[in-house]
Amino acid sequence: MSSLDAFACDALAKLDAASLRRRLVSTERGPEARAARDGRSLVSFSCNDYLGLSQDLRVIAAANAAQTRWGTGAGASRLVTGNHPALVALEERLAAHKGTEAALVFGSGYLANLGIVSALAGTGDLILVDALGHSCLFSGGRLSGAEMLRFRHNDLGHLETLLAKHRGKAQRAMILTERVFSMDGDRAPLAEMMALAEKHDAWVLVDDAHGLGVVETGAQAPLEMGTLSKTLGAYGGYLCASQAVIDLLTNRARSFVYTTGLPPASAAAALAALDIVETEPERAARPLALARRFTARLGLPQAQSPIVPIVVGEAETALALSKALEARGFLVVAIRPPTVPAGTARLRVAFSAAQSEAQVDGLAEALLELHPGMTT
């Protein structure tokens, strides 16, 4: 065995021992929140397709038409091969939706945050990140070379303490947070955070990956980032900001400059989905309503978003509960460290407009039987 393979096998053995090894499981997704695994039909509560638009025939038709007209790929980076009309149209619509001057589409949400943060901050600057922020926010901060500090989750007092202590030594400062936190489902106190940022001349970047179209009310940050792969059912990432910021990122964001552009079909799908988000408000409101139905039936605090965590503690417990639910026809995947802090393994229940009330009630009843006394 080579030293490389020995290293890999040793690392995998340690993951197995801690119940932290992950494996890819063949899964087919379909309409009405359905998923197929090992020949069994399951109701999925583990998907970020909050409005079910990846399965919407109007969105599929838009993607098919774009692919027939323009082909399957972009060919090269947008600065090399040219700025595709579908991407221009999508950026104009995203900017209008967020009320900003301009927008820039990236290959994914992760690539967007890598490029945004590292393009706007560098050596001599300060980055403050919510402790429960997504991995890509921390990756972008590390890539930038700026001093990066964590503030306690949604703790404005701790954030202000850090700003008071460190802001004066930094040339520029950024605050990175999420509108809806992906593993906890709670929301950032954006209005208060924006006021604090203005006081200390800091720029706020909001990762809106899990808020777009379903939880968008309230304060808007100067840097509104998000994805096309969740509510919009397509693929890609974006930033909405001022024209000057977008022009700068077009030149400086390495994950934009040096990567192939988004396929036209993805842009067309996102455009069609955005039409539905804006013209069917009752559909956009449904995921949060279902999440609140679920928390009410279980006696849990009212859901703030379509994401409800059921924290069980240890990884083994989360895996066992997930397996028991799958046996009853529900796909609710266990989330374990390092995605969440040690001792907080959980089931992350994600609600979609594609689910029915009966499906939501069925999951609630199963959880009450399998795991009484649950917490979030």
From TrEMBL:
InterPro entries: Aminotransferase_I/II_large, AON_synthase_class-II, PyrdxlP-dep_Trfase, PyrdxlP-dep_Trfase_major, PyrdxlP-dep_Trfase_small. One of its GO terms (molecular function) is 8-amino-7-oxononanoate synthase activity. Residues 42-367 form the Aminotransferase class I/classII large domain. It comes from the Bacteria. It holds the Pfam family Aminotran_1_2. The keyword Transmembrane does not apply. Its cofactor is pyridoxal 5'-phosphate. Keywords: Pyridoxal phosphate, Transferase. GO terms for biological process: biotin biosynthetic process. This is 8-amino-7-oxononanoate synthase.
